[in-house]
Amino acid sequence: TMCSNKIQASLLVVSYSTYLLLGAIVFRALEKNAEKEQKMAVIQMKEAFLQNFTRLTAADVEQFVKNLTEAVQRGVYPVGNESQTELSNWDFSNSFFFVGTVVSTIGYGTLCPKTAAGQIFCVLFASFGIPLNIVFLHQVGKMLSLLCERLGRWLYAKGMKKKKIKFLTLLFFLVMGILVFLCLPSFVFQVAEGWSYSEGVYFAFITLSTIGFGDYVVGKQPDRNYPPYYRSLVAIWIIFGLAWIALLFNL
Amino acid sequence: TMCSNKIQASLLVVSYSTYLLLGAIVFRALEKNAEKEQKMAVIQMKEAFLQNFTRLTAADVEQFVKNLTEAVQRGVYPVGNESQTELSNWDFSNSFFFVGTVVSTIGYGTLCPKTAAGQIFCVLFASFGIPLNIVFLHQVGKMLSLLCERLGRWLYAKGMKKKKIKFLTLLFFLVMGILVFLCLPSFVFQVAEGWSYSEGVYFAFITLSTIGFGDYVVGKQPDRNYPPYYRSLVAIWIIFGLAWIALLFNL
Ligand SMILES: [K+]
Ligand SMILES: [K+]
């Protein structure tokens, strides 16, 4: 059964990864062109404004501000010139990140499907993806609780009473979790993103609680150099952090 | 015990409402002034631009676009003149709505705490608010499942077999839920918000799954007249819809 458990766990990891991968590919295919068209429209509007702005009235400027505001609210970043439209929000890496925020229900909303096809696919994708993610996190949580069991067995061998062991492993699980999943990552975000420590704690908590406001998102500042593997480390932090919180709620 | 159950349920409703109410008041107190300052800064920037825009260079316009984009991304709506700064995003109604998106972990992110005090309070508030919300939704779910039990007893009195009853009530619960919590509200959103039907389904699903991107939010279009009690109806829909989904996952 030890071996069949391992096979079951591997199958789960493979199907979970495949599901996310395929989702990312479909979303990119559905959204990339629509996004490009929206970007082009904003850039044309800006260019028309730039060519004529010495002859415009205050009302024209107000209309320009309004159009610009709506573009930003729709997720278009109107700073810079035409060449920047080549950098799509819906490249594979961003699409995969988006799919992760869907199945975990974090839903930052920094990237959203705008086409009807993308939105309908999102509903179908999440309908199966969210339960699959719960099963996957449950499997990860099992690994985390094995660590606690080992600690318990070690204390039992030292001759400690069972009731005391249960309390100590629970305390260990809670305190270590807060240190490893909140305090330490907040410090990493402080360094890598240039946030204050309290902003780091706020971001870490808002992410792992799956509230996911999207006001702070890691790796999104265009003028910063991020350490290598930063994004992968963040993904691992989110997976184990969510599994840890799911375990806490099941205790 | 019937009576003590009712007392327990009433106590839960009262403490849940009080918790949200106090939270809304604290957030408003913490955030209102900081928001006003940010709005004033954007308006001053716009006024300076408007006074000088016939003498500005293209680089000045680009900088203006950049500043404006950042303001919108921070949640400031820069359209209109100074008088609109009096309309705070952090009035009581909006603050209460915000608190609801925190404890439910929907987290649209259309309104977020910007001050360090507001962010730290948000972490503390959610730490107790999310578990309290789960307990509250569990209580609402009990009410919903009582409806199914009644249907089951009625079918049992008609002489139906227990296994068939269980299957039928489950089917009834699923189909009725999809109709009442997804199909019908999507139609209401189509009429009240001017969205397409598929946009309504997308919004309803993204909300009840607690993904909460924040790309579509009800009652937020300044140029639309919403029916009376629209917001209250939406709140009731969210509460019962979340309770319904929580029950589905526990089946
Ligand atoms: K969210
Ligand atoms: K969320």
Automatic annotation (TrEMBL), chains A, B:
It is found in: Membrane. GO terms for molecular function: outward rectifier potassium channel activity; potassium ion leak channel activity. One of its GO terms (cellular component) is plasma membrane. It is a multi-pass membrane protein. Keywords: Ion channel, Ion transport, Membrane, Potassium, Potassium channel, Potassium transport, Transmembrane, Transmembrane helix, Transport. Its main location: membrane. Pfam families: Ion_trans_2. The chain crosses the membrane at residues 12-30, 117-137, 167-188, 200-218, 230-249. One of its GO terms (biological process) is stabilization of membrane potential. It comes from the Eukaryota. Residues 86-144, 169-250 form the Potassium channel domain. Belongs to the two pore domain potassium channel (TC 1.A.1.8) family. PANTHER family: POTASSIUM CHANNEL DOMAIN-CONTAINING PROTEIN (PTHR11003:SF350), POTASSIUM CHANNEL, SUBFAMILY K (PTHR11003). This is Potassium channel subfamily K member 16-like.
